[in-house]
Amino acid sequence: MSSFSTSLSSRTSSSSPFLSNHSSLINSDPSRRSLSFPQGINLDDLCVRSKRKLVQSSVAVGDGFGFCTILRLFLMRLPLVLGAVITKSSSPELKGGPLSIPSQEAEDKLVIESNGGKEHSTVSITVVGASGDLAKKKIFPALFALYYEGCLPEHFTIYGYARSKMTDAELRDMVSKTLTCRIDKRENCGEKMEEFLKRCFYHTGQYDSQEHFVALDKKLKEHEGGRLSNRLFYLSIPPNIFVDAVKCASSSASSSSGWTRVIVEKPFGRDSKTSAALTKSLKQYLEEDQIFRIDHYLGKELVENLSVLRFSNLIFEPLWSRQYIQNVQFIFSEDFGTEGRGGYFDHYGIIRDIMQNHLLQILALFAMETPVSLDAEDIRNEKVKVLRSMRPIQLEDVVIGQYKSTTKGGVTYPGYTDDKTVPKDSLTPTFAAAALFIDNARWDGVPFLMKAGKALHTRSAEIRVQFRHVPGNLYNRNSGGTNLDRTTNELVIRVQPDEGIYLKINNKVPGLGMRLDQSHLNLLYSARYSKEIPDAYERLLLDAIEGERRLFIRSDELDAAWALFTPLLKEIEEKKTIPEFYPHGSRGPVGAHYLAAKHNVQWGDLSLDQ
Ligand code: NDP
Ligand code: BG6
Fold it and tell me: Does residue 524 sit in helix, strand or coil?
């Protein structure tokens, strides 16, 4: 078993320790193909991931061993080749000074490390804000699931960091009590949990204290035991303290030998200006490719499958344009309110909380052109192009709503402003629907409808693709009625719950007559696959450890996303637009139907035959 690392960081220089220890071959222009190759990358782990990808692919299934061997040989040589190319071009964009062709000594080191590096490298994961809701609910369970599945490196340590006073034992107790994850009912779960908890530690500290991060660094070093250290910091804290924490971690607890990466949770600002300011501040201490901006919807199985569906099935890609698609709908609904998060939510609202990130990211993946490759930069380049081709959103193409209290069956459900952390006169939308347009050759004139709401009648997230009517359809008369919308083909990608993909087709009802109905060609994941679906956070944490950036948001993507929504948000707030009130547990404001109708669309999730 081998691992691979380079000594390139010693040849870089920068004022920030994060920057100076940064290990990738950096091309700071994000629109270019990145030459990043993370230091200390473990080839066997990489192969596990690659094998996983191969196995996932229905066409490329095979013995991953041959692939891994070739990949290993290729990667061992890759930095030498890239180093030579970069030195020759002496790109001024390369931060940290010129990189030279590795000496024979360095090459020998590479070989030694590639032969025995696994024992010599380690990953330390620090969950900053470990006492919080997200850490308990998602991060620790995801880390345990990765451990259970054998996806974490052999040597790893997990540190919880927060201001709350806690001992290691108390952290372990907290983690074990909240470790509700898909692994729960598996064999040896208890045993594995014991092993996992032994690797979890806690450090009490302030987020803006260099001294406390120095103490953390000391503890991390003890666990790393002289191995090549790679460090991942997960910022699971409110956004107003992101920069303080990054500054301290950067100066006092970054790795001195391997890579240092930081996962940043949303919200990434409130608008273009605040987002740009956050990016600028973070970049004082980090390179762009050390920043992993998480959008957990990109880690969801069905979202990950979107590109597979599109680009590996001949039957879909040719239809993927204005010629055949009448409209596309991105729908998010939750059947509960902002319970417990009202303080955060009131400052952001549903457009910032769900639309500007989760739904827009899915839209970009859905609508992008075929990328040159599956390389992170190629995919993100295409997503940015889509975002930049979008027409500014008009207020008249948007409906906002807020849920109000309702009583059903003797039970009273609270309204949004009943939440104690929400001002009584709050106009913050808990529901929004919008029509967006992409002004490019593929999508000209096709409405992309988004709908997101809290406290609705159901919890679901789905993508609905409604195709055009069949021109001169011979069977219109047999489809029962004159409503042509009832006969349109619709492809539904159900992200959650009950993950699945189905296609609504017109079919002859068996019998002597000629009557048509709409039936579903249905791929229900639970019926087709016995394997459970990993949580989005598992995939994203593993990607961050492996240095895979494909599912994380690049800064120019973020800028483009904010550029699209900022003017709209400003207008709504300046005009103090009053949201349409809808009862808790209902289907949302009626205005959403009028908005769809204005664009000749019917919401697919509200049709009788969903
Ligand atoms: P919490 O509000 O639970 O905060 C996390 C921890 O940060 C707390 O336990 C607390 O730890 C510390 N903290 C809280 N407020 C402050 C403050 N004003 N000053 C200093 N420290 C503070 O957040 P969540 O865990 O819910 O979320 C973490 C991040 O993830 C946030 O950015 C959030 O927006 C984002 N997020 C959360 C989701 C969720 O479902 N919870 C979903 C998606 C994103 P201590 O007092 O011990 O220092
Ligand atoms: C978060 C939002 O990003 O996503 C929450 O801040 C929302 O408001 C959550 O509840 C939904 O995530 P999921 O994975 O439960 O659909």
Answer: strand
Helix (H) or strand (E) holding 49: helix 43-56
- Smallest-distance ligand from the CA of 454: 2
Ligand that lies nearest to the alpha carbon of residue 335, given by its number in the listed order: 2
pTM to 2 decimals?
0.83
The ligand 2 atom at the shortest distance from the C-alpha of residue 536 is 14
Least confident window among 193-197, 337-341, 516-520 = 337-341
The residue nearest atom 4 of ligand 2, judged by CA position, is: 354
Nearest Cα residue to atom 47 of ligand 1: 164
Contact 80, 101 (CB under 8 A): yes
What are the tens digits of pLDDT across the range 145-166?
999 999 999 999 999 999 999 9
Phi, psi of 609 (to 5 degrees): -105, 95
Ligand 2 atom at minimum distance from 496 CA: 16
| 3-state class (DSSP) for residue 271 | coil
Concatenate the DSSP letters of all residues of 76-127 into one string. Answer: HHHHHHHHHHHHHHT-TT-TTS--PPPPHHHHHHHHHHHHHHHHHEEEEEEE
Nearest CA among 245, 251, 262 for reference residue 208? 245
Q: What angle do CA 579, 581, 585 make, to 5 degrees?
A: 130
Tell me what the mean pLDDT of segment 308-330 comes to.
Answer: 96
Task: Give yes or no for residue 353 CB within 6 A of ligand 2.
Answer: yes
Position in ligand 2 atom list of the atom nearest CA 348:
6
Cα 129 to ligand 1 centre (Å): 6
Ligand 2 binding pocket mutation candidate from 300, 334, 338, 348 (most atoms within 8 A of CB): 334
Residue 478: predicted pLDDT: 75
Catalytic residue, chosen from 358, 469, 520, 584, is 358
pLDDT at 603 over 90: yes
Tokens found for residue 369:
């052109």
At 205, list the tokens: 């500290």
The residue contributing the CA closest to ligand 1 atom 43 is 266
In this structure, the strands spanning 431-436 and 448-453 are: antiparallel
Cβ within 8 Å of residue 320, ≥6 positions away: 310, 442
Ligand in closest contact with the CA of 496: 2
Per the annotation, the verdict on 584 as an active-site residue is no
Residue 572, SS3? helix
Looking at the DSSP bridge assignments, the partners of residue 576 are none
- Give 50's pLDDT tier (boundaries 50, 70, 90): very low
- Nearest Cα residue to atom 5 of ligand 2: 353
Ligand 1: lining residues by beta carbon, under 6 Å: 129, 131-135, 162-164, 207, 236-239, 241, 265-267, 344
Residue pair 246/285 in contact by the 8 Å Cβ criterion: yes
**The pLDDT of residue 221 is above 50:** yes
Contact 507, 516 (CB under 8 A): yes
State the burial class of residue 163 (Cβ atoms within 10 Å of its Cβ: 0-12, 13-18, 19+): middle
Closest ligand 1 atom to residue 136 Cα is: 25
- The CA-CA-CA angle for residues 146, 149, 155, to 5°, reads 65
How far is residue 342 from each of residues 323, 415, 417, 422, measured CA to CA in Å?
A: 43, 11, 9, 6
